[in-house]
Every structure is written in structure tokens, then in C-alpha cells.
Task: structure prediction
Amino acid sequence: MPRPTKEQIDAEIVDAAAALFARYGYEHASLQQIANEVGYSKAGVLNRFSSKEALFRLALRTTQDAMSAIADAASALPEGAERDRALFERLLEATWERPGAAALMQSLISGDPADLPPEVIEAGSALTRAFGVSAEHSPDERLARLVVAANGVQAAAMTAARREVRDQWRPHIIAAAMDTLGHHRDRSLHESQR
Result:
């Protein structure tokens, strides 16, 4: 097995840090916990990242970049069911690739909106715009359904990963998200999958 690259190691550390920030909050997550999580010494982590604050900021930027990449990847598709499905598929993959970043996003958006870092606001805005939703101009129902669907995709993806049933749950996660947005699937297809 090839050795991980510097970029892969750094990404692993950032994602582990993001998961710990999500679980314990920024104030209570320590550099030692992060080092223990990835099997490095605290000095080894500090050799790669200058501080806990730097790791936190990088975790936020990683989340923002992931949401922007999801939005950009689907931008060529016209608004509608095909685009929504592509966005949910990419959100699902991003959650599996960087579960710590997804958990951090979940924990931050469930807190006080006044405390949201700008990176989280931009990440959420990029995703809602990609779905053709504007927080200021879209009907409340569409925005509410999108919030439920996107959060549901991430929560279900994390559960599927823990249970090691990614492939089995993938179509159901996507179908539930699409149903939530009002793209109801053919019920005869649903019945045949039981």
C-alpha cells in the first residue's frame, strides 16, 4: 500500500479535528485530543498546523470549499429533479469523504445563528443557491424542505457509514431526500424494492 501523501495526511488531521470540534466544541477540543485521534504527537500536529485556531479555520474552509464544489459540479444542469438528485449524490459523497467536516457543519448550524462563522454561512448559501433556493426570496416551504433534506442526507450518510451499509442505503437516502423536495418517485418502483 502506498504511503499517504502530505495532502492526504493533512486532510485526515483536519477532518479529525473537525469531528472533535463538532463533538466537544472549539473551546473544549484540545490539540492533544486531535493528535491522539490521528496517532500523532501534539508536537507532530503543531509541526503541520500552527495552532488549534488554524486547524479550526482550515476545517471551516474545507467545509465551505466542499459545498462550493458540490454547487459548481451541478451548475451545468438545469434546475429541477435531475439537478437536485446530482446535488444530493454529491452531498452524500462529500459526507462520506469528510465526515468530520459534515459533523462540524451540522453542529454549527444547529447553534445560535448569530454565532455562525462566515465560512458556514457561505457554505450554506452556496448549497441553497445550487438548489435554486434563496433564503430571502424563496417560499418558506421550499427552504424548509431543503434544510430537512440536506440535513437528512448528511445524518443518514453518517449512520450508514457507521453501520457499514453505504451501498445498501444510498438509493434510499437519495429517494428520501428527493421525496422531501417533492420529487416523488414512482411508487411501483418503490414497492418492487421492498
